């Protein structure tokens, strides 16, 4: 597989994959949103993009060792279905979870004041919506890294030993609910229309898939605008100063404004993971954050009973994995 790397076409394909897959996904979404069944056709497009990314992961991986199974594939898929597909499976209509929430919730909200610029072209309305939603996504993500009470849910996403397209949806459902609330409620309050929610959902879906892909993509100046695989791999680093950066989900605007943007001129880390311990089964992972014992496992502390006669004190970073971000996240 690595023989491809010497091909003349390899650099060209590396450059074209990210914008190509993103634009193809959005084009598919355009047709889906103009069809009689938005949700069904959006799902067809979504899973087609998953298949294309999975193929390129085999052909030109960023990290060859991440192709090997880690025993977490079932859990990754199960969390993805719960987060992104639970609603439509229950309703037998299909779609991503945020889109489904928007379809039902958006018409129910009536904004007290009409602030939304309906007269703008839809493209600019979507860009405005993305910037507003991104602030909620950024805050939810940053708080999840800086507060143990929220890290207990977000740790599941960071507990993987490899990044690939299938762990895109590996989030605890509480983590997802907080993100959806903080990103969508401000848009409801300013009266954003349904098409804006649909397009934000589409952009988030495709950027999310690309962000976690194990493809040797080159993104260059795109790193200044979007959350790209290169930036997001730094975010998954085991090193606190690297991991508590790049919180943006779609855009990196708020990272740049609020000082958490991190893009050093070297290949991003493949040393990913957390210090704590996440349960091995799907159900175990769902309930673990809600018990005191599970919480201590997640944050890397010993069970309480073993602390009665403490042995040598654990290292400070083992006690507070990935926390104390503000003191340690200054990009170098
Ligand atoms: Zn994170
Ligand atoms: Zn991630």
TrEMBL record:
<dbReference type="GO" id="GO:0016020">
    <property type="term" value="C:membrane"/>
</dbReference>
<keyword id="KW-0472">Membrane</keyword>
<feature type="domain" description="Fatty acid hydroxylase">
    <location>
        <begin position="126"/>
        <end position="260"/>
    </location>
</feature>
<keyword id="KW-0812">Transmembrane</keyword>
<feature type="transmembrane region" description="Helical">
    <location>
        <begin position="187"/>
        <end position="210"/>
    </location>
</feature>
<feature type="transmembrane region" description="Helical">
    <location>
        <begin position="89"/>
        <end position="109"/>
    </location>
</feature>
<keyword id="KW-1133">Transmembrane helix</keyword>
<dbReference type="InterPro" id="IPR051689">
    <property type="entry name" value="Sterol_desaturase/TMEM195"/>
</dbReference>
<feature type="transmembrane region" description="Helical">
    <location>
        <begin position="12"/>
        <end position="33"/>
    </location>
</feature>
<dbReference type="GO" id="GO:0050479">
    <property type="term" value="F:glyceryl-ether monooxygenase activity"/>
</dbReference>
<dbReference type="GO" id="GO:0005506">
    <property type="term" value="F:iron ion binding"/>
</dbReference>
<feature type="transmembrane region" description="Helical">
    <location>
        <begin position="39"/>
        <end position="56"/>
    </location>
</feature>
<dbReference type="Pfam" id="PF04116">
    <property type="entry name" value="FA_hydroxylase"/>
</dbReference>
<keyword id="KW-0560">Oxidoreductase</keyword>
<dbReference type="GO" id="GO:0012505">
    <property type="term" value="C:endomembrane system"/>
</dbReference>
<feature type="region of interest" description="Disordered">
    <location>
        <begin position="300"/>
        <end position="332"/>
    </location>
</feature>
<dbReference type="GO" id="GO:0006643">
    <property type="term" value="P:membrane lipid metabolic process"/>
</dbReference>
<keyword id="KW-0443">Lipid metabolism</keyword>
<dbReference type="GO" id="GO:0008610">
    <property type="term" value="P:lipid biosynthetic process"/>
</dbReference>
<feature type="transmembrane region" description="Helical">
    <location>
        <begin position="121"/>
        <end position="140"/>
    </location>
</feature>
<protein>
    <submittedName>
        <fullName>Sterol desaturase family protein</fullName>
    </submittedName>
</protein>
<dbReference type="InterPro" id="IPR006694">
    <property type="entry name" value="Fatty_acid_hydroxylase"/>
</dbReference>
């Amino acid at each position: 597989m690595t023989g491809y790397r010497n091909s003349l076409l390899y650099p060209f394909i590396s450059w074209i994959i990210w914008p190509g897959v993103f634009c193809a996904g959005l084009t598919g979404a355009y047709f889906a949103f103009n069809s009689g069944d938005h949700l069904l056709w959006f799902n067809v497009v979504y899973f087609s993009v998953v298949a294309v990314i999975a193929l390129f992961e085999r052909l030109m991986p960023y990290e060859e060792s991440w192709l090997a199974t880690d025993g977490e594939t079932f859990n990754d898929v199960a969390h993805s279905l719960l987060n992104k597909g639970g609603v439509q499976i229950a309703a037998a209509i299909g779609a991503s979870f945020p889109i489904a929430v928007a379809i039902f919730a958006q018409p129910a909200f009536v904004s007290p004041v009409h602030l939304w610029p309906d007269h703008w072209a839809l493209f600019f309305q979507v860009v405005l919506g993305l910037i507003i939603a991104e602030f909620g996504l950024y805050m939810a993500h940053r708080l999840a890294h800086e507060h143990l009470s929220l890290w207990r849910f977000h740790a599941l996403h960071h507990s993987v030993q490899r990044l690939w397209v299938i762990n895109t949806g590996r989030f605890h459902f509480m983590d997802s609910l907080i993100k959806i609330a903080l990103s969508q409620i401000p848009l409801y309050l300013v009266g954003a229309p349904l098409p804006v929610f649909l397009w934000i959902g589409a952009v988030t879906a495709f950027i999310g898939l690309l962000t976690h892909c194990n493809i040797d993509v080159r993104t260059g100046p795109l790193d200044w605008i979007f959350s790209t695989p290169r930036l997001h791999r730094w975010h998954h680093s085991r090193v606190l100063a690297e991991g508590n950066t790049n919180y943006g989900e779609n855009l990196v605007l708020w990272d740049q404004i609020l000082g958490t943007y991190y893009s050093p001129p070297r290949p991003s880390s493949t040393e990913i993971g957390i210090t704590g311990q996440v349960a091995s089964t799907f159900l175990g992972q769902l309930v673990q954050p809600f018990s005191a014992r599970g919480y201590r496992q997640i944050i890397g502390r010993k069970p309480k009973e073993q602390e009665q006669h403490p042995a040598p004190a654990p290292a400070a970073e083992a006690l507070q994995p990935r926390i104390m971000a503000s003191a340690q996240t200054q990009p170098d």
